[in-house]
Amino acid sequence: YQRRVHGESDPFSPKMARGPKKHLKRLNAPKHWMLSKLGGVWAPRPSTGPHKLRECLPLVVLLRNRLKYALNNREVKYILHQRFVKIDGKVRTDSTYPAGFMDVVTITKTSANFRLLYDTKGRFCVMPISPDDAKVKVCKIKKVELGAKSTPYAVTTDGRTLRYPDPSIKAQDSVLLDIATSKVLKVVKFDVGNLCMITHGNNVGRVGVIEHREKHPGSFEIIRLVDFEKNHFATRASNCFVIGQGKKSLVPLPRGSGVRISVVKDRERRLAKQTKNNAPKVRVAARH
Hints:
The protein is of the alpha+beta class. 13% of the residues lie in helices and 30% in strands. The protein has helices at 2-5, 59-66, 73-81, 263-278; strands at 56-58, 85-87, 90-91, 98-100, 104-107, 112-118, 124-128, 136-146, 152-156, 161-163, 174-178, 183-188, 195-198, 207-214, 222-226, 232-236, 240-245, 248-249.
């Protein structure tokens, strides 16, 4: 009572946060950003956008740490403010804009195009692509519902709303979109025999063909898949992202085609590469 009379706050009373958080400490940043632990206290906190905070790659990390177009945050802002960077065909000037899975990044100054995919270790792989591949992207359908005045619409995983979609499109299906017009070019059903990339869980980045769907009423639907090396694995249905009809992918895949190798094989490859790089080069004297 005395604290309230004299205008002091009660230390035991619950306090409300003043709006959304605006900071992100480096140790709390997603590991797949691969930021150095001793590189500073803070990390760029992604802006609100089409991808979640822990499932995206801010433009500052993409341009500075991955593509090496800039040395620091200031240079990234110089590049963005000159409107050289496009995400899915739209100029983005926010250095913390969240780019995510299947997004197409275009650098107009260098005429370079990239697509964000996952590698088999769950990290974002910045894939160089051709100008023709940069015109399309694959989107997964999250839900199909009726809006105002019974208008059917579909919502994709990258925040798009497709009005009057094809009646055959259902949740979990994927569509090939023309980025410029948002027109659906092709529909790929979430069915047995189609190609999937895993986007969540322990199998992130793995690519496989759906073999079997196990439905468990009241629990999660389990999908059985097999990759190109005949390795079998399973995951939840919500973790699957259909990327192709049959065994043919609609977009180019990263090196290794989504096949996860064992820790032993990965170590052998690294040692072989290291031995090759450290081998002394024999110079042949020129004859006069």
